[in-house]
Design a protein that fits this description.
Shape: globular
Radius of gyration: 13 Å
Low-confidence stretches: none
Distance between the termini: 26 Å
Oligomer: single chain
Strand order of the largest sheet: 1-3-2
Number of helices: 3
Helix content: 40-55%
Number of domains: 1
Length: about 80
């Protein structure tokens, strides 16, 4: 999902994981409701847009270990947000 700023916003966990595994800076996580949250990434030079396009075109290459570590990190961050509320 594009924004007019240099941010990329998504609800999709696996899009977020792909972006983290490709070292796109995670700016913040926002809760949208009880069960959902938005992951907001830096999108300078439309890097996040290109990564997601490559993801959908099955062209994206990610180190397996980095992908798994990104899943763990984001799930942990979601848990921290849930505990605070």
């Amino acid at each position: 999902m594009n924004n007019t700023t240099n941010e990329f916003k998504t609800k999709d966990l696996y899009h977020a994981v792909a972006l983290r595994a490709k070292h796109i800076p995670l700016l913040r996580i926002e809760k949208s409701n009880e069960k959902h949250c938005f992951f907001i990434f830096n999108n300078t030079a439309n890097a996040a847009d290109q990564i997601i396009q490559d993801y959908w075109e099955r062209k994206l290459m990610i180190e397996a270990r980095g992908f798994i570590e990104s899943i763990r990190e984001l799930k942990s961050r979601i848990g921290e947000i849930s505990e605070k509320q």
